[in-house]
From TrEMBL:
Record InterPro entries: CAP10 (IPR006598), O-Glucosyltr/Glycosyltrsf_90 (IPR051091)
Pfam families the UniProt entry points to: Glyco_transf_90 (PF05686)
Organism: Aspergillus flavus (strain ATCC 200026 / FGSC A1120 / IAM 13836 / NRRL 3357 / JCM 12722 / SRRC 167)
Official protein name in the record: DUF821 domain protein
Source taxon at top rank: Eukaryota
Residues in Glycosyl transferase CAP10 domain copies: 27-276
Signal sequence, start to end: none
Lineage: Eukaryota, Fungi, Dikarya, Ascomycota, Pezizomycotina
């Protein structure tokens, strides 16, 4: 089954959840739209997509498929990934009542961690590997998704990233689906300058007391300097990590915020549309029939 098909099912399930959980559904306008489950859209017409460049004014950003589930890479449902991440940072209570404390920020591994496929963006990801080569602060490994042994020994579950103090974020073919998971950690996300935008990127702050991530050049030429600064200034690093939790894990990347975004997207898209969608068509015999298939029916048969 193509990955884009599971993406489509995940995206439509998320949209349906946002609509079904809204008590005043009649207050939302009707919309007719086109979405893509590819990494980005190359068309010229109005379209909903997971990512866009600044100049793609025809593209409307929607939450990506991972907010429902990402089975292909073993992340699983988003709510479960958040639970596993929070268990590392905040602790948890086991079924037998044992209290497992969370990991203090200053006890995390003082390294920058990254696992991924270089081939999806060799210009950026290859330069990350080069900048980190031989550095004591680096835990950077390329993963060959076609090599079972490589995956078995080197793949790092998404929640285990949170045991590191610094998390590298890199773009792939366009956006990178792991970004929102990293921002759920109480760690410092370090990203090169981004050219692909996602729905939550407006909340990213790279400087000042409210900074919630660290930005470096696209060639990572200043990575070593910034990592050394953060290691030498642990209070500053912890403040950035705490800001990330406050901004993303506890606010903009919650399932509730995702549903809110979907509804806002519908309102804004409807306000720019120049027609009212028609739900039924009239056949030659005069009978009406719905255009398309109800979601509840489609999801059972797909």
């Amino acid at each position: 089954m193509p990955a884009t098909f599971t993406r489509g099912k995940a995206t439509l399930n998320s949209l349906h959840r946002a609509l079904a959980s809204f008590p005043d559904r009649d207050r939302l306008p009707n919309v007719e739209f086109v979405l893509t489950t590819e990494d980005y859209s190359s068309g010229e017409g109005p379209i909903w997509s997971y990512s866009k460049r600044e100049e793609n004014t025809n593209v409307w950003l929607m939450p990506d498929f991972g907010y429902w589930s990402w089975p292909e890479v073993g992340v699983g449902p988003y709510k479960d990934a958040r639970r596993r991440i929070a268990a590392i940072d905040d602790g948890e209570v086991t079924v037998d009542g044992q209290v497992i404390p969370g990991m203090q920020f200053q006890d995390k591994k003082k390294q920058l961690v990254w696992r991924g496929n270089v081939a999806t963006n060799p210009q950026v990801r290859g330069k990350l590997l080069k900048a980190a080569q031989g550095r004591s602060w680096a835990s950077i490994l390329a993963i060959d998704w076609g090599d079972e042994n490589d995956i078995r020994f080197n793949l790092l579950p998404i929640e285990e990233h949170c045991r590191y103090m610094f998390l590298a974020h890199t773009e792939g073919r366009s956006f990178s689906g792991r970004g929102k998971y990293l921002l759920n950690c109480r760690s410092v996300v370090i990203s090169h300058k981004l050219v692909w935008r996602e729905a939550h990127h407006a909340a990213l702050i790279s400087s000042g007391p409210e900074a919630n991530y660290v930005e470096v050049e696209r060639d990572f030429s200043d990575l070593d300097h910034k990592i050394e600064f953060l290691i030498d200034n642990p209070e500053a690093a912890e403040r950035i990590a705490n800001n990330s939790v406050k901004t993303f894990r506890d606010r903009y990347l919650t399932p509730a915020a995702e549903s809110c975004y979907w509804r806002h997207l519908i309102r804004q898209y409807a306000s720019s549309s120049e027609f009212e969608p028609v739900l039924y068509t009239t056949r030659e015999d005069g009978k009406k029939e719905p255009r398309g298939i109800p979601f509840e029916t489609w999801v059972l048969g797909s």
